Amino acid sequence: MENACRICKRLVEGSECPVCKSKDLTKNWKGVVIIYDVNSEIAKKTGHDTPGKYALQVI
Ligand SMILES: [Zn+2]
Asked: Can you give the residue range of the structural domain that contains 19?
């Protein structure tokens, strides 16, 4: 199972978030949001500005 970055919620394979370079990752996350288009409603709603796979909720 992937880890989620606590800062941007991106799902990360490995020990460091490639976007914010944070090592503050957690396995305690729920749900998946996939952003293809950063101008889409879901991207605006979740505030993600980089395409990718994100946790819906980081606990
Ligand atoms: Zn991050």
From this structure: 3-58
